[in-house]
Amino acid sequence: MKKLIAAASLCVASFSVQAVITVPEYDANAGKQIAETVCAACHGVDGVSIVPAQPNLGGQNVKYLYKQLVNFKAGYRKNGIMQSQVANLSQQDLANVAGYYASQKPWGVGYGNPATAQEASKIFLGGDKKRGVIGCAGCHGPEGAGNTWAAFPRLGGQHSAYIATQLKLFRAAGRQDDIASDDQKRANDAAKEGEMGMMQTVASKLSDRDIRILSEYVSAIH
Predict the structure, then answer these.
(1) How do residues 51-87 score in pLDDT, each as one tens digit?
(2) Residue 196 annotated as binding site
(3) Cytochrome c domain location, by residue (predicted)?
(4) Is residue 11 annotated as involved in ligand binding?
(5) The model's pTM
(6) Is 222 annotated as a binding residue?
(7) Annotated binding-site residue? 1
(8) Domains of the chain
(9) Helix, strand or coil for residue 26?
(10) How confident is the model at residue 158, as a pLDDT?
(11) Which of 76, 135, 204, 217 is 20 to 30 Å apart from 189, CA to CA?
(12) 128-148 burial, b if ≥16 CB within 10 A, otherwise e?
């Protein structure tokens, strides 16, 4: 419990130095029309993706979705497909799409690995003090539900393949891996320009095994 409280305190401190995310008033019906033509092939019309490499979006918190879309459009979060998809969308369009997917029924639960669930749960809930790893639950909640106010995403039930990829992208950015190209890094959680954000800090201390078992664990919690 002490580890969970400490991790939560660090998350609050990290968020407090960021600008508050304000989502414009949105039209979910207009967002649905965009989702059907632009987003559905990868993320599904209802926000449930059938492709493990692409995230489920249905029921995700609207602040997080809007921030990611804005970051893709600005090029702050790198992904060639996503950047091309949002290139012709206005800020209002982005808010509408975020609002639509957030209003959908949350996705279900994925499949975990019972053999490593206990080991992964210790890292997820309390981290690993010896290695300086902060527990995931402090920001994302013990059941992976996220934090709507702080725009921390819901993780529980998300595709393990997608979670693993994102952790590796954050890790590459956190370790300042010069070999990795910009699209092989993710740094859009930065608290201040030039400083590492929480996810980069946490992921930089994770091994490939940590990432694998955490991703499998996260996929199964709800």
Answers:
(1) 999 999 999 999 999 999 999 999 999 999 999 999 9
(2) no
(3) 26-105, 115-222
(4) no
(5) 0.90
(6) no
(7) no
(8) 2-17+109-220 (1.10.760.10), 28-102 (1.10.760.10)
(9) coil
(10) 97
(11) 217
(12) eeeeebbbbbbbbbeebbbbe
